[in-house]
Amino acid sequence: MTTLAPPGRVRAYVRLAKLDILDYYLGVLVVWSLLPADLRLDGLVLATMAIFLIGEVVVMAAMVALDDLTGFRDGSDITNYAPDDPRRRLERKPLVAGTLTERQVVRFAWITCVVGAALWLAAVAIAPHRPQWTVLVIAVTYFFSVQYSWGVKLSYHGFQEFFLAGLGFAVVLAPYGLATGALDGNVVVQALLFGMGPLLFGVYSNTNDVEGDRRVGRPTVAALTTPRGNMRFVIALSALETALVLAAPLLGAPWWFGLALLPTILMRVNQLRVGFADGDILRARRLGIRTHRVTVVALIVVNLL
Predict the structure, then answer these.
(1) pLDDT(81) > 90
(2) How many domains does the chain have?
(3) Residue 8 domain-assigned (yes or no)
(4) Domain containing residue 71: CATH number
(5) 3-state secondary structure string, the chain?
(6) Fewer beta carbons under 10 A from the terminal one: N or C of the chain?
(7) What is the span of the domain harbouring residue 204?
C-alpha cells in the first residue's frame, strides 16, 4: 500500500526546491506582455508557455537540489548557514538542517531532471514556432542548469555570475521564441534587464558567503577579489543595468521607458547604500529581490501600454 510522505518531509522538499523564490518564474509574465495582442489569449501559445513554465520550475528544482547537495558535501553550506548565524534560515537547507538525507536529495534531483527535460521537450513539440535558436537556448539552459553545481560544476569554475544573468535572459527569450518565432531589439533588452534582476541579488549573496566559497574554492567575484574590488564590481553591474534602461528606446522601447524604470534605478542606488555604506549585505539582498519584482511590474505595464 502506498503511503503519503509526512507533512514535515513535504515541506522539506518544498524548501529544497526553493519554491518560495519566484523571481525567475516571473519571466513568463514579461513574455506574455511582450506578445502581440492577438497572441495573448491564443490557446496554443498559452499552453506552450504554461508547459514551459512548469518545466522551468522543475528544472530549477533539480538545479538547486544539486547545488544544496554539493554545498553540503564540500562544507560551504554548513559554514554559510551555521546555526549561530541568526540572519540565515537553517531550514532553507534541508541537508544541513537534517530534515532530508543525501539519498532523498539525490533521488529528488534525478526525478526532477528527467521530468523537467520531458516538459521542455513537450513545450517545444506543441509550440507554434520552433526556430533553431530557441531550441538551442532551451538545450543550453537545461545543460547549464543541471551542470551548475554538479558534474562539470560550472559555478566552481568562475561562471557563476554569468549564469545567474544568463538564466534570466534565457527564460524570457525561449518562451517568446516558441510563441512568435521572432526576435527584436526591444525583446532582447527586456530579457537582459530581467536577467540583471537575479544577478543583482545573487552578487549580494556571494558577498555574504565569501568565506565559505573561498574555503571550498568556489571562484565567485567576491571570493576572488578584495572587498573594495567586489564593491566596484557590484557598482559596475548596477550601472550596466541603468545603461540598458537608458538605451532601450534606441532598440524599440517607447521614449518614456526610462521614466517607467526610474523606480528600479533609484532602488538600485538604495541597495548599494544599504549593502556597502551601511554594511548590511543580507538586507541589501532582500532589497534586490524587491527591486527585481518592481522591475517586472514596470516592464509589464510598459508593454501593455
Answers:
(1) no
(2) 1
(3) no
(4) 1.10.600
(5) CCCCCCHHHHHHHHHHCCCCCCCCCCHHHHHHHHCCHHHCCCHHHHHHHHHHHHHHHHHHHHHHHHHHHHHHHHCHHHHHCCCCCCCCCHHHCHHHHCCCCHHHHHHHHHHHHHHHHHHHHHHHHHCCCCCHHHHHHHHHHHHHHHCCCCCCCHHHCCCHHHHHHHHHHHHHHHHHHHHHCCCCHHHHHHHHHHHHHHHHHHHHHHHHCHHHHHHHCCCCHHHHCCHHHHHHHHHHHHHHHHHHHHHHHHHCCCCCHHHHCHHHHHHHHHHHHHHHHCCCHHHHHHHHHHHHHHHHHHHHHHHHC
(6) N
(7) 16-304
Tell me the pLDDT tens digit for each residue of 265-289.
999 999 999 999 999 999 999 999 9
pTM here is 0.90
- Is residue 183 situated within a structural domain? yes
